[in-house]
UniProtKB/TrEMBL annotation:
Pfam families: ThiS (PF02597). Keywords: Nucleotide-binding. One of its GO terms (molecular function) is nucleotide binding. NCBIfam families: moaD. It comes from the Bacteria. GO terms for biological process: Mo-molybdopterin cofactor biosynthetic process. InterPro entries: Beta-grasp_dom_sf, MOCS2A, Mopterin_synth/thiamin_S_b, ThiS/MoaD-like. One of its GO terms (cellular component) is molybdopterin adenylyltransferase complex. Belongs to the MoaD family. This is Molybdopterin synthase sulfur carrier subunit.
Length: 86
């Protein structure tokens, strides 16, 4: 049986504020990283920040991606806050 899920990971403050580091999402044809962000933010509460004013960086299979990037079954989709430095 094949894995028909997308593995979603959260890093840094997102992991802490969402109180989870991983979850899985059912893969669908044409699904994008932005679609998953929208679905997760619709859960409300701390999840709403995923569509809020603060930008969220995206990586698919450890490569930087954009909201419009397609995700497929077996992919690892990661969300993390922008890295700041001084």
């Amino acid at each position: 049986m094949s894995d028909n899920t997308i593995h979603v990971r959260f890093f840094a403050r997102l992991r802490e504020e969402l109180n989870t580091d991983t979850l899985t999402v059912e893969a669908e044809p044409g699904l994008t990283a932005g679609d998953i962000l929208s679905r997760l933010s619709a859960k409300g509460g701390p999840w709403a920040q995923l569509k809020g004013d603060q930008p969220v960086m995206i990586a698919i299979n450890q490569a930087m991606a954009k909201r419009g990037s397609a995700v497929q079954a077996g992919d690892e989709l990661a969300f993390f806050p922008p890295v700041t430095g001084g």
